[in-house]
């Protein structure tokens, strides 16, 4: 017998590591072509205004300028879930920063000069900056034509309002639930819009050749979605659009869907055979790509004397910005996840996606979960304190377990949250908390612990598909053709491990392709923490298909039944007699029979995956027996020190425990978690997009918008629980976004445990903390 | 960025020659961590830059008859790791260690920090603390001027266009213990919202002599003489610390008046003072 070593659960080194550390990896910004042109975009100086007149004549006359375009050149609406967005503003602008005109020129400098020569006359309109005002009757309408916009069936825009989606949960009669409760607790929470801040700003090169075929190189998470959206709006077949994804320097959701590719399309249509490059400036990155939506939450919770939650009513109002083509689904995801990790018999949730005259809301690592858990997890702690219960004890009474139902009425199984909580409790060294904190203020510093839980499902259409092609080379090495993008998360490595495991060849024989929609296998998008899960399943199937072909040739070669053979370490061998083996390289392109004739052919395996049995939510109640493919649970516990005088929070330690079903690559899973903790900590303490009263973003730079640095790093203790997922590869669950979700509420809960102050608006700045201390203690 | 000429003298004399010839239109370039930004933003548009970082006579730290002399083109990294500084004037090491990021500390110089005259310049409170004197040289001759007189408001100094800041001369009290602390919006790459530096000489349990300087609460860092007078002769105990903190709060409130940052800073100064005193306490034991 051969003793096989498994690649699953091994910290295989990153596939993209050597290229990245040597500088060999190519990003879109590195690409240069002959006769390349450079684009610049003129952007709106008003949050909401009619465009009266655009005069581009001076810009057009500037030597070196090749084309100038405006909204009228390409007025088609596009979008992922709701087609509400045009590449350039048509007739009116809806946020400060919206593209109004584009220029392609022989250099960036000339393009910039040309932009400055374009004259635009506006008539200012009243702006909607607060979604709570925007959803009221009589508010200025940002999209008067909303009722005519195309959209997917799963979202519900309200015509003649600013509400682009209203997702509802009606689980039982919530009033009945409140009637059965002994206490009712209410709370309000708020998160501002924030930015992803990837190191690489959005960059794209678009070219339309003389036959009308588009080639697009883009730092993007969604090559297939880009192709689909553009094909739909250009009304050309997909064979006429090729999207390539070189390495992507950080996505975090910002590079999902169509972004800056769109404004280059009308330019490319005018300038055949000219690759047009656009590199977003940092200022544009902050304001003019996706941002995380702001959100106002109101929660009302009914609880029994014993501390059992009976009913929850939750209203979430999302500050979704000028175009909600993607954001509508965030609202939906928060809606169907609105029980959090709790088993709540009676629920009513209203999640409203509201247009505002602000930057476009879109996916940001967590897809609504960070925002929603900021509210729910603080609220749970607040209730525990009011009941005089330890926050963990209160949670253990109420969390989901096998057989519980969630917000959508789904009966849950393989629920690992209890294990996560207990492990985190142990790792942080939790001491029971009962009653109000009594801090010792005189030393100037107060230390305390806090905890928060989270849940997330991949947010995607029910039929979001993955596929993979496994293609053997002459020497037995393997090309794995997929369209998943390596955005730093380690997808290529995990998928190569899976592929090698199934094929029985060494992992370093696998070369993972970069996306090229003309040649690589379909992938819905690299989002939703779904690649290891969904593409992983497709890779398993593709590899098994290829392996079967190897075995068939082996069977013919050895003259034994296929079932008696296996592949390992690059050989097809007879299990009962491993000395009888043939190298994969000798059969990769087909078998040569003893008489010299050929048999079989090059080995190519294909595999596809769609999560099965995902059923749409009911429009009125949001109920579904299985509305999402699966859930991933996790917990973070933090230990913080607060400076009483300065209000500064110093996060000393963060414990993170996630149930990810199966850890495919421990180092990568850990690194992913560390990155998420830092990002979560950053949003907790620093991040906030600030606007003036006219809707102009005030801090579009790293000087004025602070993110955490290495100097804020806490000690991080990370552990995983493995409750296998029925249809996950080796049991693996989706994992990636989850890691930043509970950090902020855990810190806020620790702040309460330290000083008895609760700050319900992000971020927890030193000023806010200081002010709250002063209000409570008068010092 | 506009086009500018660039000179790289290797001696002070050559530099002075260039500055005299260039009149007001040449600008000294040290680490460039302020100046290059100003060039980009077109806040300044000199005809030429005179790079002084290759003049070896402008680098280094030495001790002479109780005075510590720091050459202007010495970087923050060099200052923060100097044994003389660490032993004799640790407040300055504290300050240089928290400037920007490692890259900025390797590039930025003490001279540039002074001449840039930012209210939040990190090294300046610690330099002012030790009665820092600037030595200015030009073809016309050399003069010495107290840093507190050299600095004339936000971005303003008494340096003439043909003058080079050659060195700063510090006079710590013999046997003193000192410390500096800066409060920024985050732990690295953040300008000081408030900073402070304190130097104490102990006589038994009492404070024999004291100096205190504050940053980011006025146009330039300054010596808080009221706090110094209060400390002189006091017991170094909790009561004194709390009283000092109370006085510091009042002082900051006075300085900031009705500025938007006042309500926060006048309270947060307490935490800054506490941290400085902790550092002094720890160092005193050694
Ligand atoms: C990212 C970043 C972070 C920063 N963080 C901090 C921080 O945390 N704390 C802080 O205090 N500062 C910070 N700074 C500002 C800057 O680094 C410091 O002020 C630094 O000391 C400037 O020194 P320099 O050598 O780079 O000066 P330069 O930029 O070369 O010069 C600054 C000015 O001084 C003049 N000058 C320089 N040397 C002399 C001389 N010998 N004689 C006469 N004139 C001279 C120049 O002509 C110029 O006007 C930061 C800057 C950046 C870009």
UniProtKB/TrEMBL annotation, chain A:
Transmembrane segments: none annotated. PANTHER family: ALDEHYDE OXIDASE 1-RELATED, XANTHINE DEHYDROGENASE. Keywords: Molybdenum, Oxidoreductase. Residues 22-126 form the Aldehyde oxidase/xanthine dehydrogenase a/b hammerhead domain. SUPFAM superfamilies: CO dehydrogenase molybdoprotein N-domain-like, Molybdenum cofactor-binding domain. InterPro entries: Ald_Oxase/Xan_DH_a/b, Ald_Oxase/Xan_DH_a/b_sf, Ald_Oxase/xanthine_DH-like, AldOxase/xan_DH_MoCoBD1, AldOxase/xan_DH_MoCoBD2, AldOxase/xan_DH_Mopterin-bd_sf. Pfam families: Ald_Xan_dh_C, MoCoBD_1, MoCoBD_2. This is Aldehyde oxidase/xanthine dehydrogenase a/b hammerhead domain-containing protein. GO terms for molecular function: iron ion binding; oxidoreductase activity.
UniProtKB/TrEMBL annotation, chain B:
GO terms for molecular function: FAD binding; oxidoreductase activity. Residues 1-175 form the FAD-binding PCMH-type domain. It holds the Pfam family FAD_binding_5. Keywords: FAD, Flavoprotein, Oxidoreductase. Signal peptide: none annotated. This is FAD-binding PCMH-type domain-containing protein. It comes from Carboxydothermus islandicus.
